[in-house]
Amino acid sequence: MNRPTFFGHRRRGRAFGLALAGLAAIGQSACSAPAPASTPPAQSGSAEAVDGKFRNPDGSPSTASTWRDEMALWWWFAVGAKKEALSPPVPPGHVLPADQALALLAAHANQDSLTWLGHAAFLIRLHGRTLLVDPFLTDYASPIGGIGPRRYAGPGLAVDRLPPIDALVISHNHYDHLDLRAIRQLPGKNRMKVFVPAGLGALLRENGFSDVTELKWGDSSTLDGLRIISVPAVHFSSRGVFDKNATHWSGYVFESPQKRVYFAGDTAYHDTVFKPLRQTLGPIDVALVPIGAYQPRALMTDVHVDPEEAVQLGRDIGARVLVGMHWGTVVLSTEPPFEAPQRFRAAGRTKGYADPSLWVMSIGETRPLAGAAVTAASTR
């Protein structure tokens, strides 16, 4: 049967063979992996590698899934899924035309703002500085162009249409978050600040960035008065077969004198890890929380929140506004691609959020952050 498949090849047999051969390397950004061993919770200050491997906080969720469960998922991607499941029709308005996206960005150039570039990629304008976060902006979330998960919704802005970037921030090394094909194209590498989790600095330096800061959980750095704080996430790392958990993963809080913006990265839910963030940092003005890539639940529960858990995470950290991310761009799991926003909104209402506090943005959309503030300085 000659139709496109998950791996970008037209013949199902060849695609499935590549799926089996490249399972570990290509699938790291898409699928669950056995839960890493644990260390004490991050609030105790421990985020060190043990025997060269990083760990999740103690008590992190784990699955009872087997290799058969994982192979069933990969069979679905390589053979069983229909074309429309892997490249679904994109609803009108989901992706803004580039000219409209540029106009919106320009209209908010002199104020704090948030621009969704698709998946977990954002431009965050805060305290007069522009941050580029987890910029997956090319076509394939894989080590080899033309093979692997392919985006079905284009980026909000291509790399060559981005504004000048003051800082690049990476949450972890999976291909749908650390897109080397995109960041190699960024101008100004010699002046750009880069913030990455522990162990990931060497890869960024190898790709032309000179000012790279590695952060462990609880560490912070400053950028012209803007504080960047590394906070825990429950996930894993790898870009190949033999580097499992050799680098760390994290979320971030970006704090100016007026606002706090939280970026979750990729994370599973943990009933004790996130609540201390509110106690130590104060409530969050805007929380960017992942709401997609959550099915099959037996495989994903230890690495990705579902929409309901994303809302609970937001409640745990005292977030005033929740922004859904990590959806609507590339198929990495088996839930309907446009199901997540409905579940996210429904869960938010159940937890007491009004609709204006539950942001489901269009790709390329910019929204001002004015009004979404609890005044950071007053909540210390």
Could you give the topology of this structure?
Elements: H1 12-21, H2 23-26, E1 38-39, E2 56-57, H3 67-80, H4 83-86, H5 98-107, E3 113-118, E4 121-126, E5 129-133, E6 167-169, H6 180-183, E7 193-197, H7 201-206, E8 211-215, E9 220-223, E10 226-231, E11 251-255, E12 260-263, H8 275-281, E13 286-290, H9 297-300, H10 307-316, E14 321-325, H11 340-350, E15 358-359, E16 366-368
Highlighted features:
single chain, 380 residues, alpha/beta, Metallo-beta-lactamase, Chain A, 7-stranded mixed β-sheet, 22% helix, 18% strand, globular, disordered N terminus, disordered C terminus
Produce a short descriptive summary.
The chain has 380 residues and is an alpha/beta fold. It is built from eleven helices and 16 strands.
User: Can you tell me the CATH class?
Assistant: Alpha Beta
Largest sheet: 7 strands, mixed
CATH topology: Metallo-beta-lactamase, Chain A
Overall 3D geometry? globular
Poorly predicted tracts of residues: 1-46, 374-380
Order of helices and strands: HHEEHHHEEEEHEHEEEEEHEHHEHEE
Q: For the largest sheet, list the strands in their spatial order.
A: 8-7-6-5-4-3-16
Number of strands: 16
Head-to-tail CA distance between termini:
61 Å
Number of helices, where a helix is a run of at least 4 consecutive DSSP H or I residues: 11
CATH superfamily: Ribonuclease Z/Hydroxyacylglutathione hydrolase-like
Q: What oligomeric state is this?
A: single chain
CATH second-level architecture: 4-Layer Sandwich
